[in-house]
Amino acid sequence: MNSDLTITLTGQSMIRGDIRVDAPAAVAGIASLIQGDVAVTNYEAAVYAAAKGESMRSGRFASPPESIDALKSFGFNLLALPNNHSFDIKVSGIVNTLETAKRAGIGCAGTGRNLTEAAAPYFLQTPKGTIAFLAVASGLVLDGRATSTQPGSNELRIAGTEPHGEDAERILQSIRSAKGNADLVIVSHHNHHYPSVERPEDFKQILLSELPVRLAPAPWLEPWSRQMVDAGADVVAMHGPPFLHGMEIYAGRPIFYSLGNFFFQVPPESIHLEEPIMWESVVAYVDFKGGNLSSIRLQPIAMNKVGSGLPNPHDQFDVNEYHLTRGLPRAIKGAQARHLLERFAQFSRPYGTNLRINGDTAEVVVGRAR
Questions:
Q1: Which domain holds residue 215?
Q2: In-domain check, residue 370
Q3: pLDDT digits over 68-107, tens only?
Q4: Helix/strand/coil for 355
Q5: Rounded to 5 degrees, what are φ and ψ at 116?
Q6: Among candidates 183, 179, 79, which has minimal Cα distance to 128?
Q7: Residue 143 to residue 145: CA distance in whole angstroms
Q8: Is 195 a residue whose pLDDT tops 80?
Q9: What percent of the chain has pLDDT over 90?
Q10: What is the rounded CA–CA span in Å between residue 178 and residue 134?
Q11: Residue 88 lies inside a defined structural domain of this protein
Q12: What's the pTM?
């Protein structure tokens, strides 16, 4: 690959509707955040199919097919599908989401009609080279794991404090194989493995308690991420915790331990998701030149906590105007941007990563490529 190529990375998109219809005034600002040749987000929802009698009340994060159309219109061309909400409408939701992405013409990875499909990379052909995209989920996947006979997510199970051997080898082998057929390999990993988190209630309690552990990756994630780079991953982008975590450059390749949220249209009754720093993150623009990392630029963003109309805090399934118009990303400036970037710099410093803050944006100091 001889051309310059830019990859836009965002956190998770918990999107509940068609933003173009629900909040048209926000569209231009959102689209301006998506730049470059490749743009990736994690679709944290399950598509419902009205023809099957399904609706927004069919699952906690059930979303209409137009939500994926909206993501494509903003400029996304790759969706990571495996996460703890992929199975919210059971098998039907997995299939609906896959079929919707295919109809929309947007690439996706990480779920499938069986484990072989879920583990397979998606190859995106661009004028500047071939991009292989793989996606993984760990923690709170529960019954949503793909098997040889059941649709679901490409899950990395955790045995105690270590990745499950069989799952780890499957994923690493997929990366090795993808590397042999692509110019760059991107791996998306949705992770909910804080210590002692086995049920959604455990996760909620950690967030409500504001424990320090919520602001750093689980210890096993660091060596695991480096293993993925050693296997051939050129970019590792993580999400799952609704917080921005730090990043490192390992062997000339970036690892983002959590990019937090991008769209955050959570129901107003979810009081464990109201901490202010959950509603801030960055969009990362990762530039490659001749296959080597050349720069990383960071745009700080915030999501609006207050939507239009009135909330219904008593019914998590009442996806009304308030719900559909909150949690939308926008670029931020001034003191809010600086404080967010300084926090990200602090989280990244233990990995030897340094940021150069330039007013309302920042650059990661990139050393010699491998």
A1: 4-364
A2: no
A3: 999 999 999 999 999 999 999 999 999 999 999 999 999 9
A4: strand
A5: -60, -45
A6: 183
A7: 6
A8: no
A9: 91
A10: 9
A11: yes
A12: 0.97
Q: Does residue 123 sit within a domain?
A: yes
**How many alpha carbons fall within 13 Å on the CB side of residue 123?**
13
Residue 300 to residue 275: CA distance in whole angstroms: 17
Question: How many domains is the chain partitioned into structurally?
Answer: 1
pLDDT of residue 369 exceeding 60, the answer is: no
* Amino acid identity, position 167: D
The number of residues in the chain equals 370
- Amino acid (one-letter) located at 309: G
Q: What is the DSSP letter of 304?
A: -
Of 74 and 367, the structure prediction assigns the larger pLDDT to: 74
pLDDT of residue 368: 53
58 token code pair: 């069919």
User: What is d(CA 299, CA 286) in angstroms, rounded to the nearest whole number?
Assistant: 11
DSSP state of 114: S
Q: Is residue 206 part of a domain?
A: yes
Q: What is the CATH number of the domain that holds 38?
A: 3.60.21
Distance between CA atoms of residues 240 and 258, nearest Å: 7
DSSP, collapsed to helix, strand or coil, labels residue 197 as: coil
Cβ atoms within 10 Å of 36's Cβ, excluding its own: 17
In degrees rounded to 5, what are phi and psi of residue 43? -85, 100
Residue 292 has, within 13 A of its CA and on its CB side, a CA count of 9
Taking the C-alpha atoms of residue 204 and residue 215, their distance in angstroms, rounded to an integer, is 14
Interval 245-254: pLDDT, tens: 999 999 999 9
